């Protein structure tokens, strides 16, 4: 088992395999992945969170002025 795991670990660390799912009692209990692949995933998740916050802020701040096709802040309409 240890020798097989070592070979799988080398594949993951060399990015020959994307991820290694570890099972216990036929249930997945952990996922092992290359450090750079993990960092790339975390960076992408952070970018998506920032984009979602920006989109929410823009949606809350800008409205389309009927008939003009222009965007105005909601403060002007209040």
From TrEMBL:
Cited InterPro entries: YefM-like_sf
Entry superkingdom = Bacteria
What protein family does this chain belong to? Belongs to the phD/YefM antitoxin family.
Official protein name in the record: Phd-YefM
- List the source organism: Ectothiorhodospira haloalkaliphila
